[in-house]
Amino acid sequence: MKKISNTIQTFLALATMIALIVVSYLNESIFMDRILPCCFILSVIMFARIRGGVNRIVTEEKAQ
Asked: Which UniProt keyword terms apply here (predicted)?
């Protein structure tokens, strides 16, 4: 249940960021050069949060 709510929150935040970018572009915002990098960084963080981190799988081969 918690995983589903985290995913929904993340997608809502992502949709809000996309809406902010679109509205800023349509209004010819002077801060567009700062909005885009910030939204990119936040979206990378949110995708990492959805993924739940990186899990490293180590395969060990036994020598004979």
From this structure: Membrane, Transmembrane, Transmembrane helix
